[in-house]
């Protein structure tokens, strides 16, 4: 892999600095622009001006080209993008005042077609051919909408009408995905990169090893904890696997974990980490914009599902470790928690400030800027790894590259929304889906889960989410389901392709580090991540799982779900906490199945308060039957001391 040329690195630095300055001016209302009414459209085009041209200089035309290589056509496309974005930024007043998104002069039409073309090329370079194909189909759909089959037939538009709508309407490229970026995402992306470049990753790894490294299966539990902490910052599953996995996977293998299993643990943990509050990746911010709600509400709703998932991972790892007599790392070989906290306490302080501003002050747009400022100040005053010129440049280059990639994808994904909006399909497709499902909400959920998974296999999570947020989510909400639960359901199922064959990118990346078989690692990740396949159906059907119910109901849900997850994990791993190992054979298999069914019954969602004790009683009965079989058939091997 090559490196970027020096002038491109400087362009990324300039892009990061100017984009951050523009964002601060916009969000803090510093008043560098006088006409507030036109500020947003100018602001959106300026953001594109600062990022879109760099896509063609940073991301190679072909995977066979070395990273950072540029050809003459890359420079041409970059120049064309610069001119096109500058054109729209300059004529932003005319776009609004003269209604160019409905009828535009010839020079604006030409610029619109160029803009459309550039976004498609940018999507292909940053998101791959699958994303390009889906966006292409949706973006040209308005030109053939009247020829589509009945359920997906819409109002047809001419090529000119389609192009100017995509380029200048507030419902396409300048729509929800881009608005979520400029209003929410920028600060959190800067904060995530700053955390990584100031050493937060090694700090979280050290503190996890100090706290959990000595217990049975310690390195695996450390891998889950560190992935949860660092993955929330990076927002990228693969980045999380490559950073934390390079340390935790060798440690797992050293204490006896099979390579396939170690890779599966890291893949499952890294996938769930991107769903962990307070920073859940760019898609969560797009979700907040779709729902027209505070990002804080998304964070609160996502807390229990993510904690249940990681609780299930810990339970499975503990059962596997006990069943296979896997020990932890000797305390003498572990860092001391006191020393780790003394050296990196300010990372926790910064996270505390961020969470306080999010949950108490409810200032989600500006909270990450304050947190980043505090982090950089403390890093320079207290850290042994203070930044110099080189570290600052690396931080700005990484930030600029992240902005370039994310804007290219979000702007191109806006073409999907625009294609449905201009044809009227975004308002009618939900009714068509309800009709196809025969009004059966659960069947629609199953279809939605399958569609989310399939789309997630071939494109970015954000793109898959946006398609279904426009088409599927309104149908599910019309069926009586909670809006936040529905959107989280789509997000969760769009993530599952990272650990599910045939794609399973997270498992394959982890397998490369573990020197394991890719598909074997993927199947281990699937088994470990069993809870993530189940929990979306729970929280979409029961608002208590997303803390949308009363305190008592939410508390009962936590208790029931925790017991249920423990029993499900015991059935999968063949080890019941406090009882011991459940052997193989027919009766052992029956006992494990009964444990899993008992756990499922315990955790089932319930809207009726009277149904909760019934579910608990049935679950207890099935669980006692499984326990009786285990005690009769096998010796009561007590849990080994830690």
From TrEMBL:
One of its GO terms (molecular function) is transmembrane transporter activity. Its main location: membrane. The chain crosses the membrane at residues 6-30, 42-60, 72-91, 103-123, 129-148, 181-212, 273-292, 298-319, 340-359, 365-382, 402-422, 434-456, 463-484, 490-513, 525-545, 557-578, 585-604, 610-634. It is found in: Cell inner membrane. PANTHER family: BLL3936 PROTEIN. NCBIfam families: TRAP_fused. It comes from the Bacteria. Part of the tripartite ATP-independent periplasmic (TRAP) transport system. Keywords: Cell inner membrane, Cell membrane, Membrane, Transmembrane, Transmembrane helix, Transport. Residues 116-548 form the TRAP C4-dicarboxylate transport system permease DctM subunit domain. This is TRAP C4-dicarboxylate transport system permease DctM subunit domain-containing protein. It comes from Pseudooceanicola batsensis (strain ATCC BAA-863 / DSM 15984 / KCTC 12145 / HTCC2597). One of its GO terms (cellular component) is plasma membrane. It is a multi-pass membrane protein.
């Amino acid at each position: 892999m090559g490196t970027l040329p020096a002038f491109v690195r400087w362009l990324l630095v300039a892009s990061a600095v100017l984009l951050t300055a523009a964002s601060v001016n916009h969000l803090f209302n510093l008043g560098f622009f006088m006409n507030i009414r036109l500020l947003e459209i100018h602001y959106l085009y300026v953001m594109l001006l600062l990022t879109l041209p760099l896509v063609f200089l940073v991301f190679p035309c072909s995977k066979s080209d070395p990273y950072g290589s540029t050809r003459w056509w890359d420079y041409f496309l970059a120049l064309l993008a610069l001119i096109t974005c500058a054109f729209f930024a300059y004529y932003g007043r005319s776009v609004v005042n003269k209604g160019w998104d409905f009828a535009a002069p010839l020079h604006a039409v030409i610029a619109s077609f160029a803009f459309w073309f550039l976004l498609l090329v940018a999507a292909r370079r940053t998101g791959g051919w699958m994303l390009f194909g889906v966006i292409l189909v949706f973006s040209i759909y308005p030109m053939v909408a009247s020829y589509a089959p009945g359920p997906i037939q819409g109002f047809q538009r001419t090529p000119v009408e389609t192009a100017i709508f995509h380029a200048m309407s507030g419902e396409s490229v300048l729509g929800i995905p881009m608005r979520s970026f400029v209003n929410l995402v920028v600060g959190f992306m800067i904060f995530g990169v700053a955390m990584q470049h100031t050493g937060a990753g090694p700090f979280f790894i050290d503190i996890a090893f100090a706290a959990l490294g000595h217990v049975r299966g310690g390195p695996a539990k450390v891998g889950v904890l560190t992935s949860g902490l660092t993955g929330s910052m990076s927002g990228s599953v693969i980045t999380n696997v490559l950073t934390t996995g390079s340390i935790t996977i060798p440690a797992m293998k050293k204490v006896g974990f099979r390579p396939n299993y170690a890779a599966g643990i890291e893949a499952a943990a890294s996938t769930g980490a991107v769903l962990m509050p307070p920073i859940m990746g760019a898609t969560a911010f797009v979700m907040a914009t779709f729902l027209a709600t505070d990002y804080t509400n998304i964070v609160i709703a996502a807390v229990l599902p993510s904690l249940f998932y990681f609780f299930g991972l810990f339970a499975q790892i503990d059962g596997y470790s006990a069943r296979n007599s896997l020990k932890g790392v000797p305390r003498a070989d572990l860092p001391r928690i006191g020393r780790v906290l003394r050296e990196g306490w300010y990372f926790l302080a910064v996270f505390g400030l961020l969470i306080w501003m999010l949950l108490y002050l409810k200032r989600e747009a500006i909270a990450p800027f304050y947190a980043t400022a505090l982090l950089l100040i403390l890093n320079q005053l207290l850290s042994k790894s203070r930044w110099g010129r080189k570290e600052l440049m690396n931080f700005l280059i990484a930030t600029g590259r992240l902005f370039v990639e994310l804007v290219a994808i979000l702007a191109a994904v806006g073409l999907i929304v625009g294609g449905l909006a201009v044809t009227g399909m975004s308002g009618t497709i939900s009714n068509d889906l309800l009709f196809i499902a025969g009004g059966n909400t659960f069947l629609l959920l199953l279809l939605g889960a399958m569609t989310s998974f399939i789309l997630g296999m071939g494109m970015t999570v954000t793109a898959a989410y946006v398609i279904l947020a426009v088409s599927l989510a309104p149908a599910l909400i019309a069926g009586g389901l909670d809006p936040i639960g529905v959107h989280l359901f789509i997000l969760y199922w769009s993530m599952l392709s990272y650990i599910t064959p045939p794609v399973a990118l997270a498992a394959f990346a982890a397998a490369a580090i573990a020197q394991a078989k890719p598909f074997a690692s993927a199947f281990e990740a699937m088994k470990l991540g069993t809870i993530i396949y189940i929990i979306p159906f729970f929280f979409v059907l029961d608002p208590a799982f997303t803390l949308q119910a009363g305190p008592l109901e939410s508390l009962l849900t936590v208790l029931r779900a925790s017991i249920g997850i423990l029993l499900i994990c015991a059935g999968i791993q063949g080890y019941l906490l406090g009882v011991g190992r459940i052997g193989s054979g027919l009766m052992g298999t029956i006992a494990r199945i009964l444990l899993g069914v008992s756990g499922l019954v315990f955790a089932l969602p319930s809207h009726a308060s009277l149904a909760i004790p019934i579910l608990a009683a049935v679950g207890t009965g099935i669980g006692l039957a499984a326990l009786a079989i285990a005690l009769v058939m096998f010796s009561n091997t007590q849990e080994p001391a830690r």
